[in-house]
Design brief:
Number of strands: 10
Radius of gyration: 21 Å
Low-confidence stretches: 1-8, 387-391
Order of helices and strands: EEEHEHHEHEHHEHEHEHEHHHHHHH
Helix content: 25-40%
Structural class: alpha/beta
Strand order of the largest sheet: 3-4-5-6-7-8-9-10
Distance between the termini: 40 Å
Mean pLDDT: 92
């Protein structure tokens, strides 16, 4: 969609999640190793929305593993502290929600039913779990009950299903709605697609139509503000969830806020502005990791290719950025860039990160034989909750 054809004002109300109002109906998706305190702050400094932590496993949180406790830390000025939980056992998920509520560690909780990674689905978790309707219902009902004790809205994020022959999103959406969730987010892909192909926005529209009484959020293939506007217009969703599209582009949240406010203004940063963002990211990571500069620099290295996608940056500089050891060295390398080198246009936009290839989803033996959880499957789920301990 070109700027000329964008509506002057997108007719979209602020997103209401229980008692909370999100003025800009944009959610930063939880991404492991990405959406830590540093990157959430960087995105918040650019635009409005709701910014969710990295996913934390329920068992690890209940056990108070150091990593899980780090993941759920928020800056003092994060007005809506949002945490995403993963779990496969209703009792453990309920205990994790109870901890977050009773210790006042979250204002919003999201449950992950969308992860397609084999080590998760092989244990019946993530995108595989909604296939077992009774287990899905038990987890969501338990989590909503515990969250409601502190008036904390709970949402779910899911995929279309396991594959084209085992779709779950409509039934799971209704189960979640009936359990009392504040909203449902749908990534328009199945588990076996990973991030390949094109997101199915028509499926998102079908879910929006099936659940007229709660907010529905759309996720998948939003690489620009124009994509977000197009998704809203095509599907009728109440808000958008931004994942890979913001990797190396925290200013996307400025574009999104402008678009939802009816402005055609967009950030097209020259190389100098990108360099400033990278250094700011590095500074924030040092704070996030309690002054451990080496850990901070190790963390930022994976972002470098995303930040400089499409820009004129020599291979030597790219190599040094990918192994940068200190903030001082980072500043030195960035100073070698031409700050006036212009925004490269389309080369800097579009998909980023690995999409993967469609492949058969790793599942427990016999998982697809029934949509009810019985016998060996129930025992496997209990074991899986222990296996994923560690945050």
């Amino acid at each position: 969609m070109s700027l000329e054809t964008m509506p002057a004002k997108l007719d979209l109300d602020p997103l209401q999640l229980g008692r909370h109002t999100v003025d800009t109906p944009v959610i930063l998706a939880p991404m492991a190793g990405i959406t830590n305190r540093a990157y959430r702050r960087l995105c918040r400094e650019n635009g409005g929305g709701l910014f969710v932590t990295e996913m934390v496993t329920s068992r690890a949180l209940v056990e108070r593993s150091p990593e899980s406790m780090r993941i759920i830390q928020h800056d003092e000025d994060e007005q809506l502290r949002s945490v995403q939980l993963y779990g496969v056992d209703p009792v453990t998920v309920g205990a994790a929600v109870r901890l977050l509520v009773e210790e006042d560690r979250a204002d919003h909780i999201d449950l992950n039913f969308g992860c397609p990674v084999p080590k998760v689905t092989r244990k019946g978790g993530g995108a595989a779990l909604p296939w077992k309707k009774d287990l899905f219902r038990a987890i969501v009902e338990t989590a909503v009950r515990e969250a409601s004790k502190g008036d904390v809205p709970l949402t779910v994020k899911m995929r279309k299903g396991i594959d084209a022959d085992h779709l779950t999103f409509l039934e799971a959406g209704r189960i979640a709605r009936d359990a009392g969730v504040a909203a449902v987010a749908l990534h328009g892909r199945t588990a076996n697609q990973f991030y390949s192909g094109q997101a199915d926005w028509d499926a998102i529209a079908r879910l929006r139509e099936a659940l007229p009484d709660i907010p529905v959020l759309g996720n998948g293939d939003i690489w620009s503000a124009e994509d977000a506007v197009a998704m809203v217009n095509r599907t009728g969703v109440d808000g958008v969830v931004i994942g890979r599209g913001c990797q190396g582009r925290p200013w996307l949240f400025a574009d999104l806020q402008a678009a939802f406010e009816g402005s055609a203004e967009r950030r097209r940063p020259a190389l100098g502005e990108v360099a400033k963002a990278v250094y700011r990211h590095g500074e924030l990571l040092v704070e996030t990791f309690n002054g451990d500069e080496l850990q901070a620099m190790r963390d930022i290295r994976k972002h470098m290719a995303w930040y400089f996608k499409g820009y004129v940056v020599g291979s030597d500089i790219r190599t040094r950025l990918a192994t940068v050891p200190t903030l001082e060295e980072l500043a030195s390398i960035l100073s070698e860039l031409d700050p006036d080198s212009p925004y490269p246009g389309a080369d800097a936009e579009g998909p980023r990160g690995r999409a993967g290839r469609p492949k058969r989803t790793a599942l427990p033996d016999g998982w697809l034989d029934s949509q009810e959880l019985t016998g060996v499957g129930a025992e496997m789920i209990k074991a899986a909750e222990v296996d994923v301990s560690g945050g």
